[in-house]
């Protein structure tokens, strides 16, 4: 049985037994928060439990490294949709220790892609077309720096409302312990004080 066959067989039982009922909620996040985190398999259940986030509490966005690589890409669009259309009023960027994006070099992915049939001509054509393949596939040096970069990109976005708190955290994938890097409430309070002076 293939993986797809096992998924479909399980799903048939899941629906027949109405196991979905315990997950029913609305599309609006109860805790009014959108969380950007890594796709690391260790965080799949650990992160929600460690943050006391249950089904229906948050909009959860996952990608490799919790990276926002472009201010007008799909990650930032998802954050803005969560805020404007779904009622989120806080953003939490949660990176993690031992992330696979830490120290990742493009050469590793490009070598493996060629082993799996992607031709060097295709890679050269992408680079010739103006795609920065090296930059696109390169990770970061420190998870803390990456979280701070993502938080700053969100906070500086021209379409982000000024009253949205943007927090930065790092989670330990072994214990679930959260370390706070950026408290978004402090930034909001600073902005309020500065606006009152004007």
UniProtKB/TrEMBL annotation:
Binds 1 zinc ion per subunit. Keywords: Metal-binding, Zinc. The keyword Signal does not apply. Coiled coil: none annotated. Its cofactor is Zn(2+). SUPFAM superfamilies: beta-carbonic anhydrase, cab. GO terms for molecular function: carbonate dehydratase activity; zinc ion binding. Zn(2+) binds at residues 38, 40, 96, 99. Gene3D superfamilies: Carbonic anhydrase. InterPro entries: Carbonic_anhydrase (IPR001765), Carbonic_anhydrase_sf (IPR036874). The keyword Zinc applies. Its EC number is 4.2.1.1. It comes from the Bacteria. It catalyses: hydrogencarbonate + H(+) = CO2 + H2O. Belongs to the beta-class carbonic anhydrase family. PANTHER family: CARBON DISULFIDE HYDROLASE, CARBONIC ANHYDRASE. This is carbonic anhydrase. It comes from Halalkalibacter okhensis.
